[in-house]
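lol forgot to send this yesterday, sorry. struct tokens for the thing we talked abt
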């Protein structure tokens, strides 16, 4: 029998910690580290049933993939129902989902009439925010609500001390954006992907999902669930997470309307925002906002750095072209760019210098549709638009497997007994640490 026990949930000041004790088939997917989240306000007065939400949101998808039941002392009743709904969605999305039940000694109904934010300095909505195209578009759409801008360390920015600089850069950028608009911020830090054995999850499931485990399966429910104590403390009724994809994109992704719109707890409801807009249409929303209110707005989307945009990676170029197609000068909004670089984009794509996946294919196709309608401003831009309209984007997508050595490591991990793997884990982890870093669109 496979089971996962959530035990000893404690809130000490701003820190949440609990033990995760798996047994059976799912054991290899946990490192033995306590699950931890640090908030920027005290959470000691948050009910235990709400404190359980962050760990349940991250552990339950692993349990469902292994047919394991989950046991916890107390859980918010509304969230327990949300888990049932999300479980149904994931089981319909992935054949490897086997199910499992949640058992709680107590369910609670957090009083929706209580006032967890008596000082009134919070807001009634929050937005997961990085400063990229998607989250900035969602801010623009909901700016009348003055949402709390919530940023999370633990996914694309890991808890590793080597990422301290990136986290500081993100905090500074988000804080500056918020201060200019008189908004509140919330910064959360978690070791969720350290308590979960993300390397082993990747080894077992990468060949069955379009991307890594967390991006394809866990991150919609997982990231939103991390926000529950913060939302309770600040009286947040609505939490928005910006869409990555849009209607018509046939990719399985862990954050989508079917999942995110079902996540809820106490008096808080979550929303997958902007799904009806393509990425280029989201840039249009930002362009209108720039013209009306924010002429100096800078975006941050770079795959290589957090203290600005390198201007040379695929994502920087893609965003710069998108800004240009929405009538903005990329150099005025964080992207060093000249028309001569259109030839460089074409060369990089034709030579396979960038690892392009299905996400990028859809996004360049979206750009292509806008390019058909746009009058070029230079010969270089004309050449690029003509090439983009005629090129076979599917042929440019890199579907190549990882190097043989990486495939063998993953296969070995899949077939290693848990007792042996636990001894070998530090070596496996060090080898994997440079691989498969999740791309954030």
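and heres what i got for the seq, position by position
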């Amino acid at each position: 029998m496979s089971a996962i026990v959530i035990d000893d949930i404690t809130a000490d000041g701003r820190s949440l910690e609990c033990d995760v004790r798996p047994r059976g088939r799912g054991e290899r997917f946990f490192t033995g580290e306590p699950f931890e989240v640090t908030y920027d306000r005290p959470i000691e007065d948050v009910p235990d049933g709400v404190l359980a939400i962050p760990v349940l949101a991250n552990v339950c998808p692993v349990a469902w993939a292994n047919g394991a039941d989950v046991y916890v002392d107390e859980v918010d009743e509304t969230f327990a129902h949300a888990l049932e709904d999300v479980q149904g969605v994931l089981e319909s999305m992935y054949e490897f989902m086997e199910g499992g039940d949640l058992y709680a000694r107590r369910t609670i109904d957090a009083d929706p009439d209580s006032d967890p934010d008596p000082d009134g300095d919070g807001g009634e909505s929050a937005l997961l925010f990085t400063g990229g195209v998607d989250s900035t578009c969602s801010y623009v759409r909901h700016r009348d609500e003055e949402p709390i801008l919530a940023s999370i360390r633990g996914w694309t920015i890991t808890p590793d001390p080597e990422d301290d600089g990136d986290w500081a850069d993100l905090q500074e950028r988000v804080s500056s954006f918020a201060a200019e608009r008189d908004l509140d911020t919330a910064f959360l830090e978690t070791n969720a992907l350290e308590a979960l054995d993300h390397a082993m999850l990747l080894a077992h499931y990468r060949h069955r999902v379009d991307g890594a485990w967390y991006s394809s399966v866990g991150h919609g429910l997982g990231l939103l669930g991390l926000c529950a104590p913060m939302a309770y403390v600040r009286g947040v009724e609505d939490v928005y997470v910006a869409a990555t994809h849009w209607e018509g994109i046939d990719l399985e992704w862990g954050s989508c309307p079917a999942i995110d719109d079902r996540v809820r707890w106490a008096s808080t409801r979550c929303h997958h925002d902007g799904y009806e807009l393509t990425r280029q249409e989201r840039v249009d929303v930002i362009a209108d906002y720039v013209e009306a209110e924010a002429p100096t707005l800078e975006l941050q989307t770079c795959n290589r750095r957090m203290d600005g945009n390198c201007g040379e990676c695929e994502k920087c170029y893609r965003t710069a072209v998108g800004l240009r197609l929405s009538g903005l000068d990329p150099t005025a909004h964080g992207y060093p760019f000249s028309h001569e670089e259109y030839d460089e984009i074409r060369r990089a794509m034709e030579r396979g210098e960038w690892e392009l996946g299905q996400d990028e294919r859809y996004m360049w196709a979206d750009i292509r549709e806008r390019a058909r309608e746009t009058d070029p401003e230079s010969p270089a831009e004309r050449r690029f638009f003509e090439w983009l309209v005629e090129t076979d984007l599917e042929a440019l997508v890199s579907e190549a497997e990882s190097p043989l050595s990486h495939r063998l490591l993953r296969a070995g991990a899949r077939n290693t007994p848990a007792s042996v793997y636990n001894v070998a884990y530090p070596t496996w982890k060090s080898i994997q640490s440079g691989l498969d870093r999740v791309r954030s669109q």
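Residues 399-411, 431-441 have pLDDT under 50 and may be disordered. anyway ping me if u want another try
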